[in-house]
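Re: that chain you flagged

S.,

Sorry for the slow reply, it's been a week of failed gels. I finally had a moment to sit down with the sequence you sent. For the record, here it is as I used it:
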Amino acid sequence: MERLLRDVKPLEAPAPWIPRVDIHETPESFVVTMEIPGVERDEIDIVVEGLYLTISGHRSEPASPKCMRWHQMEIAHGRFERVLALPQEVDAERITATYKDGFLYITVPRGVAGGCSVPIEE
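Prediction finished late last night. Pasting the structure tokens below so you have them in one place:
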């Protein structure tokens, strides 16, 4: 029993915020647009495993002076993650991603599903 419990991965707390996502389809691909302003490019991970696209990252809290009192705080910070199911006919090896003006654009070409990590292009 001890070995079983030792080998079990601890449960992670759910992400504190969930970015909004738009998905549309063209004859050549599926396009995912994620709204994540304030997130640094190197804080974003995009992974394809089978028929699932996982987008995760972290938005840091802004630095604040020591003597400060919040009056309203609506902008979420911390870890985020979205897991999206992909259609059967995608080509995971040709997925591309770009990040501009707080929006992450992921283009998922039609083809055969696989698995990979996706770099974010300039």
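What I noticed first: The domain at 14-59+75-121 is CATH 2.60.40.790 (Immunoglobulin-like).

Talk soon,
D.
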